[in-house]
Structures are given as structure tokens and as C-alpha cells.
Amino acid sequence: MPGYGFFFDPTYILVIIGMLISMAASAYVNSTFKKYDNVRSRHNVTGTQAAQFILTNQQINNVGVQGIAGNLTDNYNAGTKMLSLSEATAQSTSVAAIGVAAHECGHAVQDAKNYFPLRLRAAIVPVANIGSTISIPLILIGVLLRGSLLINLGLIAFSLAFIFQLVTLPVEFDASRRALAILGEGGLLTEEELPMARKVLTAAALTYVAAAISTLLQLLRLVILFGNNNRRN
């Protein structure tokens, strides 16, 4: 094992960089949402009404819409066919709220059209969750037992989390693309409001990019920390 401790070593700068990137992305999406949450849509529809209109317009009749607690906790569950809108989105008539609601509808459209990256992400979720849980224990046990196989398995397990983040990117960007197209074609937002919604959705997408970069930096740190030990074994 390297001469410095696992939790106190120069490579920890990679984790710090990842945290800073994630924090910056989170701050940006929150500030962007707040800015355009103060802009009332000209057509005065709520996030819930927008979602219901989009689902009907896209002939999706098997998806429910419900409100959930929290701020920007909006999500679409393909398993339960339920679109959940947070308090900041459901009853708000802001451009930001309508954009977020439309984005989640974009996932429902992906589901209805069997969009492959969405299916792939759903298939990866359980494996990625298990991988992220057992990766560090496998690596540490491998170091203690001087077992390169366990170290390699641990690194592979952790890399599954990064693969999940990569697969998530096209899913999220495509959902936003679909959302903006639907908003424009359906007339829910005006030509002046569409660029505002685009800024909100772009800011939200950047949080997924930041998560992928952060995970990659953590994986790189593990390779640096334990790669030499692995080769010596």
C-alpha cells in the first residue's frame, strides 16, 4: 500500500476537486431555477397542468402525475408509471417550473418509445448500486490479503458507478431536448420564454455532467492509490 494513509494523502485533492465541481453545478442550477422561477408564464399554466397537457398531447394515458415534498425532487418512475413533481414545480406557473415538468414528461415519452439508453440505465441501476457498495471493502480486503484479484474486482465494481453516470447523460439531455420541442410545438411557452426554459434545463443537465466527472476523479484516485500495490502483487 502507498506510504500515505487512505484518507490522508495527496490524491485526496481529486475528491476535493470533484466535490467543488458538484457544488458549483448544484449552486448554478439552484440560482438559475430561482431566477426563472420568478418569471410567470404568459399562459399561466402550472407545472402539473403542463405535465398533464404534455402526456395527453403525446397520447400517454398510463402515467399518473402526483406532487411530492421537497425542492427540485422531480422525477419519473418508469416502473410505477408515475411522474412526481416537487412543491416548487407542481403548483407554480413559472417558466422554470413548466420547463422542469416538461423535462420529466420527456422521460415518460422516452419510456413510451422504448428509448434504449433509458432501458439500459434502468438495467444498470441494481448492478451499479451493488458495485458502489462493495467496491471499497473489496479493495481494502485485497490490500490486506495482498490479493490483486480482489483489488481488480473492487476497481471494476467502482467503475460501474461511473458507467451508470455516463449512460445517464444521453438520457437527461434527450429528455430536455424532447421537452423543449414539445413546449414549443404545444404552445405552452412563448418564443421569448423558451430560451429561459432551455437555460434551466441546461443548468440541470450540468449537474449530471458534474456527477460523472466527480465519479471519474474518485475512480482515478483509487487506481493511483492501489495500482502500484496491485502490480507488486
What labels describe this entry?
233 residues, mainly alpha, three-stranded mixed sheet, 7 helices, 72% helix, elongated
Biggest sheet architecture: 3 strands, mixed
- The fraction of residues assigned to DSSP E strands is 5-15%
The count of helical stretches stands at: 7
Termini separation: 10 Å
Could you report the average pLDDT, rounded to the nearest whole number? 90
The radius of gyration over CA amounts to 21 Å
* Count of distinct strands: 3
| Global structural class | mainly alpha
Q: Largest beta sheet: what is the strand line-up?
A: 1-3-2
Oligomerization = single chain
Helix content: over 70%
Shape descriptor reads: elongated
**What low-confidence regions span 5 or more consecutive residues with pLDDT below 50?**
1-7
Number of structurally distinct domains: 1
SSE run: HHEEEHHHHH
Can you walk me through this structure?
This protein is mainly alpha-helical. It has one domain. It is 72% helix and 6% strand. It contains 7 helices and 3 strands. It has a 3-stranded mixed sheet. Strand 2 (75-77) and strand 3 form a beta hairpin. Helix 1 runs antiparallel to helix 7. The radius of gyration is 21 Å and the shape is elongated.
Give me a quick take on this structure.
Keywords: Membrane, Transmembrane, Transmembrane helix. Helix content is 72%, strand content 6%.
